[in-house]
Amino acid sequence: MQTDTELWDLAAPAFVHALPALMDIYAAAMDPPRDQLAGRQVIMEQHSRHPGFRSVTAVEAGGDAVGFAYGFHGRRGQWWHDVVTQALRVRDPAAERRWFRDSFEIAEVHVRPERQGRGIGRRLLYRLTAARTERTAVLSTHAGATVARGLYTSCGFVDVLSDFRFPGSPQQPFAIMAARLPLRVPGSARFRGRSRVWRWTG
Length: 202
Hints:
34% helix; 26% strand; Aminopeptidase; alpha+beta
């Protein structure tokens, strides 16, 4: 694991101030059409005003940011939450209640491509979800056998919806994934911070 990379918690104002640098990480990791970046930055600024917002940035010893992650409490009235829960209401109402009744929405987790494979993404994910009071964490990721899906699965995430198409992006299939909080320790049946006799009540 990369030991010379620190994780910094950024409050919402600091996150917004750092967004130009974070957007460079997003662009390197996701390679989106350049004309979409300005709109994506506006969305991230809006996300910083959601309740329970939290962000974490990975910073190397020289002060350069190489990764970031953020999320917030999911609730009705938020676009992603409403689109996903509406689909679940049709396909699996029990899953909607179980995973989205009290959820932490992980909106973004990105690491510069040249820094991937060093455990930074996993550290960001654990730091971001540490001490959250929500019962579950939820996210969307590209469908298929990607490195990101492998990371999420190792932390306890499972598919809630597979081959899901968001409005406006019908060509790109996504997996909607969810996990109990706190997240599972890789290679263990137990979960971080959870008692051996703790039972999930659904």
